[in-house]
Amino acid sequence: MAFALTLVALVVVLALSWRYLGAYLVAVYEGRVRWLAFLERPIYRLAGVDPEAEQSWQRYSLSLLVFSGVSILLTYALLRLQRFLPLDPQHLGAVTPALAWNTAVSFVTNTNWQNYAGETTMSYFSQMVALAVQNFVSPAVGMVVAIALIRGLARRSARTIGNFWVDLVRSVLYVLLPISVVFAVLFVSQGAVQTLAGPAHVHDALNGVTQVIARGPVASQEVIKQLGTNGGGFFGANGAHPFENPTGLTNFLSIVLILCIPVALTYTFGKMVGSVRQGVAVLAVMTILFGAWLAVGVVGQKEPNPAVAAAGLPAQPQGNTEGIETRFGVDSSVLYGIASTQTSTGSADSAYDSWNPLGGLALMAGMAQGDVTPGGVGSGLYTILPSAILAVFIGGLMVGRTPEYLGKKIQAREVKLAALAVLAMPLAVLVLTGIAVSIHAGTAPTLNKGPQGFGEIFYAFLSQGNNNGSAFGGLASNTAFYNVTGGLDMLVGRFAVIVPVLALAGTLAAKSAVPASLGTFRTDTPLFVGLVIGVIVIVGGLTFFPALSLGPIVEQLSHGRLFG
Amino acid sequence: MSEQVDETSAATTGPGPGAGSAAGENPLAGEHAAGRGARGVAQSRSLFDPEILRSAIAGSFAKLDPRVQVRNPVMFVVLVGSVVTLVEAIAHPSIFTWGITIWLFLTVVFANFAEAMAEGRGKAQADTLRRMRTETAARRLGAAGGEEVVPAAALAKGDLVVCEAGDVIPSDGEIVEGVASVDESAITGESAPVIRESGGDRSAVTGGTKVLSDRIVVRITAEPGKTFMDRMIALVEGANRQKTPNEIALNILLAALTVIFIPVVVVLQPFGSYAHGQVSVVTLVGLLVCLIPTTIGALLSAIGIAGMDRLVQRNVLAMSGRAVEAAGDVSTLLLDKTGTITLGNRMASAFLPVGGHSEEEVAAAAQLASLADETPEGRSIVVLAKERFAIRERELGGAHTFVPFSAQTRMSGLDLDGHQIRKGAAEAVRRWVREQGGSIPAELEGIVERIAKAGSTPLVVADSGEVLGVVELKDVVKQGIKERFEQLRAIGIRTVMITGDNPLTAAAIAAEAGVDDYLAEATPEAKMELIKAEQSGGKLVAMTGDGTNDAPALAQADVGVAMNTGTSAAKEAGNMVDLDSNPTKLIDVVEIGKQLLITRGALTTFSIANDIAKYFAIIPALFAATYPQLEALNVMRLHSPASAVLSAVIFNALIIVALIPLALRGVRFRPSSAQSILRRNVWIYGVGGVLLPFIGIKVIDLILTATHLY
């Protein structure tokens, strides 16, 4: 019952955010929001950017790649030079090269895969300057790509798709920063810690020991971690740690923060292309798939833990509570986990490795579908639209016309770019998993063998390839092999999607629009929603079904049943 | 005169009014096309003519050449896969390895067979045309005026040749002198002769056609080897077939799906090893072939060739596949009123008496005045009089003189027993009556005006200075055309009627025919403007034309169908030629274009949807030894891992053969909105595509089991 109320509250809050945050985003990217102009203008002057000058897709991509490349180098340098930098009360040494590489790529690509525990690896300076800054700009990069693609669809015979620098600055300044400030205060009020005073030393007189309790500027990072679908926690325990996620309210707000921008962007999309219905169709695809996997996750986790049952321990009326924070319970943890894995956030308030196999399957499913339901901030929309374009292409042929999406003809070039954007991630994930399971460096660090061990490896690459960053656990992945291959995985999952998407934006913007008629294949109907779902499920299913069969599916079957 | 030629040919060859509506009911059924094919270039051949079958079977092995296969990435992967399994089969011979090898090989052969079948009919037609194109001798006129006999192949552009009755015209050209009746059956299949004369829009003659009467001098307009007949042979044969834009886009998608499935399958080897299992290479190749979109990959080019062929069956030659695809995209049709929307001739529809005369009196006088009038209008008056009042053609007793129509008097009629009966344009007859001393009844003015406003033509009938009444000549809209336009509207196509009539007349006919818009008092320039205006809004425009002054508009339109009777300039400018010269066929062309795309989309959907069942067949089989639990995924309860894999591979190969008729005939196209077409096709090819292989694979598995091979 409580869970039902949680869901209702979530739907209401997200509906409001869809309508109003979505409209606000339109205003932001159309340049109508100016209340921080006194901050915005000096930034452009300082950076030597002409905010009026628009860019072709090539220049836009180049700007984005240069910005991301410099970000990786800078983050890498800061982590390597940690011991020479201030705000390091614990005197943590330099981060090792492989880990620094993995972490730099991870935070720049909005993945936040963490091969380390924050409290014992990163100084406050690294957390605040190297990582938190990326927590703001990496989602902004995702948002600008989505906006550029929307502009490509909305514009007619245009040569430009916007200005990367302006879009980036406006995303951070008008969207991410203000929301983060407000919610950080709320999180502090709930008990999330915020201090630069270093760890607390508590003398336990009874046992005669001194406990060291890690602290830090947590609340300020916590909100952007969720809002930007970053997911990288201050502590290794992530959202299960009471200093990060102190109460049921912050747990709920975390879920809201994770979902609000990806959901709102569908309104922004509809509004900017001139038909909110188009945005509703995309949102419907996201919602249906999200709901389906949430249901599978809940069903899976409501089953008793087979290992506990086999040990002859008492019945488990609440389902599988192993690895679940008792503060949140099974249902809310599943909701959090599904929200986090279907948005490329990757934060966690429970231990995924302990979930029942069916629950684990639900976690992997969102990523196998490309993290588009609703997906990461910006990345969800810009990754689902190529799938929609493929659906338009196949469906459009079936009505006997050169397929069109929002009046733009989908021809050879668009199909090529959309296919690249859709298939880059599965390719990287499968090849890297194949390598990892074949060599000792890949198989040694797993906690388990057999299907569970396979699942741990596969999950690692699936998560990084989708820039999700959630960890299944069980894999001691801070090794040279996993740091390096994981970094590659994240780069492919990010930029091998973004560049084709921006090219798509460019070629679509250059096209004129075909006026709609009765002969036009409509893309705002339930039928189209069904087709897009079909494309996402079939592409995700066909590419990952064998891998999923060898991981969670076979494990679940070993328990004698698949569903229920 | 020219209109009469059109009428005869339309009545006998094209879907005239009657055929048009019949085609509307079942526009694209195979029998229909085949039935019509008997008359055109298309010789009477069914889809599965034994001769074509024989040559297609030979062709499907000839196409195994890797240089041919590499052009189709999907089938190339299958061919490579069958070589891999062949090596395995030789190394580890078993019924399973050889079974898979043979069926993979057959998959490639079946794909080749589909393509060869599609090409077969075109090739057979081209051969027939070649045989007809006998080496003709030409009588070339020398500069001095003398004649010399040279082979047709030696004719250069600009040469003058003489053709007399019985001669075959040696090359394409334009008549510069004379008039002749020409038998064009070699091209159109229509045996009724047509008239060709120098000057105007009927001066073009085609090499290979035969002069039946008179003598003409023709100036050759085609380079040797580039005559219309040569182009036609090349087109029918599909010699220079190029992939169309949508076909290229679809090929990219298929290639992408093929490329992604290679790693999907290859990594199963390490995945299997990790689980301490052995995964057989043969099974993996089988899985790969089942997953890549072989069904559509095998049939794609056959669909394209068959689409072009369907046009040929309707006596339309498309200069490129691109034009056929564009036809499917058309959103505006420009249709000439005469010959397309109306029958081309005005027909008497009513007798309207004035001044107290009876309707029958008007009819009788009008009939008398029209007895010698051989124009369709005149005949229609006689016919109407007979229908309405049973006034038969009569023996004219006594002295009578026919008064023919002249441009000066603008009247015709006859003088009989002292009566002077005349019919003619209102103004002319009025003047004549006054000259005769008669008076004009007051109500005449009103009746004449009303008829003109309704888009008809009034003919006033008078007898010796007394006005009897008015004959209404109506522009008769073709039967069934209104329904055709409704269907077009349902699929989102706008129709615009082009006419030289004044706006009033045009509006009346437009309303009756049910077109969406009209362009009255149309000039070639106005037509051009209209096309450009539509195109600037992103719409694709199709039109027909035959005159030289249509050429710029034909070139500008996205689909320009030139009439075969038209000038060579028009034929050069358009991207299709209608051998029957029947403008109504533009609608068929649009439907064929749509059907082509629908067939591709439907089979792509089907092909991808099939993969789901194949996974359920092969994945449990693949890891049966390692993870027997996966047997739960064997929802089809297939007999054994080997039979499961083999059944999936066999299904995958047989489905290609099973779908060849569909690929060649095309998916049925019913004119309706995109939404309902999509819904129907998603159900049949999407949902059906998911379910059918579950049944098919199970049945094949049962057969394999029953034969005790496993």
Which parts of chain B are unreliable, with pLDDT below 50 for 5 consecutive residues or more? 1-44
Q: How many H/I helical runs of chain B?
A: 27
Radius of gyration of chain A, whole Å: 23 Å
**Main pleated-sheet profile of chain B:** 7 strands, mixed
SS-based class of chain B: alpha+beta
Tell me what portion of residues of chain A adopts beta-strand conformation.
under 5%
Question: Care to count the β-strands of chain A?
Answer: 4
Beta-strand proportion of chain B? 15-25%
Tell me roughly what share of residues is in helical segments of chain A: 55-70%
Oligomer classification: heterodimer
Strand order of the largest sheet of chain A: 1-2
The topology string of helices and strands of chain A comes to HHHHHHHEEHHHHHHHEEHHHHH
Report on this model:
Chain A is mainly α and 564 residues long. Chain A has a domain at 2-271. Helices cover 64% and strands 2% of the residues of chain A. Chain A contains 19 helices and four strands. In chain A, the strands form two sheets. Chain A has a two-stranded antiparallel ribbon. A two-stranded antiparallel sheet of chain A has the order 3-4. The radius of gyration of chain A is 23 Å and the shape is globular. The two termini of chain A are 21 Å apart. In chain A, 60% of the residues are buried. The model of chain A is unreliable at 560-564 (pLDDT under 50). With 710 residues, chain B is an alpha+beta fold. In chain B, 53% of the residues lie in helices and 16% in strands. Chain B has 27 helices and 22 strands. A seven-stranded mixed sheet of chain B has the order 10-22-21-20-11-18-19, sandwiched between helices. In chain B, strands 2-1-3-9-4-7 form a six-stranded antiparallel sheet, with no helix packed on it. In chain B, strand 1 and strand 2 form a beta hairpin. The longest helix of chain B is centred in the first third of the chain and has 38 residues, at 95-132. Classes of the chains: A mainly alpha (564), B alpha+beta (710). The interface between A and B is large, with 64 and 71 residues.
